Amino acid sequence: MKKYHNILLILMFVITGCTKVSDQEPPIPDPIKSYFNIYNFLSEPYDVAWEIDDEVVEPVQTYGSPILEFSIMEKEVQDLMFTAKEAGADHVIKNIVHQAKQNHYYTVSLMGNETDPLILIEPMELKKPSMGQVKLRFMHTAMELGALDIYIGGSSPDHKALSNVRYALLTEYFEASQKNLWEAIIVTPNNVAPEDSTLLSFTANNIFLPNHIYMGVIGHTTSSPSSSLHLQLYNQPVN
Predict the structure, then answer these.
(1) Which of 12, 91, 99, 188 is the residue whose CA sits 20 to 30 A from 74?
(2) 120 and 133 together in one domain
């Protein structure tokens, strides 16, 4: 009799254990996200308020300031509506639909003016540069300027790194040495040598660090198109 009693206890234990496993809540899956670095280069005196699919992005955005934002999506690839508004008003400056992918990073940039606004959305590349190198790309936001050339490390023709950089264009990524970037970044009109016309000369650039990624924005120091030109650098995420 004792033998059967032990078997019964074992069976009860097994049944109880199975019941506990079945009662457990299923694991909650990680949310599907995409990520956005948002920039405001609009030539208007007011701040900008953003919405992504009617969800308000905080805080409101001053000229030249970045916002890092993410969106929780219902599926791995989804169309999202980006809307830029005048802060404190219902006035919509511009909206655009963009197809976002899970775990991808994007650059979202508002530029132009109220009469001719533009939202540029481009994917970001997070892969590290070659060992000891710096990876970067440039964006041209000064709508009154024509195409530009960019020299890195000096003003001689062999230092021309990019040619025909047009307004509202985000260039491809490329790599450069820290030494050359520290030496000089020179911006000229397209097909004009630095000695004939230099729009910007960015020197003593000791903020560049190897194995990092940057975006250099050519534009104005303030939202006024009459303000001076400058080159603003932004750190980008790196995997």
Answers:
(1) 91
(2) no
> What is the domain extent for residue 200?
127-239
Look up tokens 């903020």; give the residue. Answer: 207
Strand order in the sheet with 184-189: 160-165, 148-152, 184-189, 200-203
For 110-164, write each residue's pLDDT tens digit: 999 999 999 999 999 999 999 999 999 999 999 999 999 999 999 999 999 999 9
C-alpha pair distances (Å), 204 with each of 132, 182, 185, 192, 232: 19, 5, 9, 23, 14
Backbone Cα Rg of the chain: 26
Per-residue model confidence as pLDDT tens digits over 28-52: 778 999 999 999 999 999 999 999 9
The pairing of beta strand 229-236 with beta strand 213-220: antiparallel
218: how many CB neighbours lie within 10 A of its CB? 23
- CA distances (Å), 202 to each of 19, 40, 154, 199, in order? 69, 22, 11, 10
